[in-house]
Design goal:
alpha+beta, Butyryl-CoA Dehydrogenase, subunit A, domain 2, 2 domains, 3-stranded antiparallel β-sheet, 6 strands, flat
Length: 244
């Protein structure tokens, strides 16, 4: 892809597509015999730009992640907003990926709040006070809070390595991927425990918990995939033991 030439293609998973004014498209810039990763900022009202409303999913419906269609779109030179330095690989560590675990931990936090609100207000006829006072409900809340605290601190510690780099202590691709894996595992566990607190009430179509549960399941499909992260740690272990 180069500036000043027409471009056609399709970008899947374009989050918030129906309301965007501008969209960043990650692609490969080709100039002569060289090529490399680059970002282009494209106006949504540019000729040839359209949205194909194909986002019809069980969860994450609110993201409106439809397909972006580019049909003979011509871009000016200033549309190129980022170009990777010479020699940079596409698969190098990218701290911007931390937004993925942050989003899912946010959904998990919301599930916790919904569970607490329900437990503090729901009082069956067999009890003289709300279920939040029951020992097994308290244990579930405690487990939720411990899991969320661990996941948040892991994510913050990796983010801090990029904000305040320390010599010989960089956060690589594996650790960035591990944050996502741990966050998704935590969010899934929290959503499950939140539904155990709310019971069948949380599965009602009108209850936010069922939506949060479905949204969090989407984390399993967000790259990097869990198996690829575990494989990176396996390769590290092989190198550490001289077996690579």
């Amino acid at each position: 892809m180069g500036t000043g030439t027409s471009y056609g293609g399709r970008k899947t998973f374009t989050s918030l597509a129906p309301v965007l004014d501008l969209v960043v498209v990650n692609t490969t810039l080709i100039e002569g015999d060289t090529e490399g990763p680059a970002d282009f900022l494209i106006p949504m009202d540019a000729p040839g730009v359209s949205v194909d409303p194909v986002w019809n999913m069980m969860g994450m419906r609110g993201t409106g992640s439809h397909d972006l269609v580019l049909d003979d779109v011509v871009l000016p030179a200033e549309a190129l907003v980022y170009r990777a330095p010479a020699g940079k690989r596409v698969n190098q560590a990218n701290p911007q990926l931390l937004h993925v675990p942050a989003c899912y931990l946010g959904a998990a936090r919301a599930a916790r709040e919904e569970a607490l609100a329900f437990a503090a207000s729901y009082q069956p006829n067999t009890l003289d006070r709300p279920i939040i006072h029951l020992p097994h409900i308290g244990a579930l809340i405690g487990e939720i809070d411990v899991e969320l605290a661990a996941a948040r601190h892991f994510m913050y510690s990796v983010a801090a390595k990029w904000e305040h780099p320390v010599a010989d202590e960089g956060a690589g691709i594996a650790e960035l991927g591990a944050v996502k894996v741990f966050a998704i595992r935590t969010a899934l566990s929290v959503a499950d425990k939140a539904l155990r607190i709310a019971g069948a009430h949380g599965l009602a179509q009108t209850h936010p918990l069922q939506r949060l549960f479905r949204d969090i399941r989407f984390g399993l499909s967000n790259p990097p995939m869990e198996d690829s992260v575990l494989r990176m740690y396996h390769q590290q272990a092989l190198r550490e033991t001289g077996q690579a």
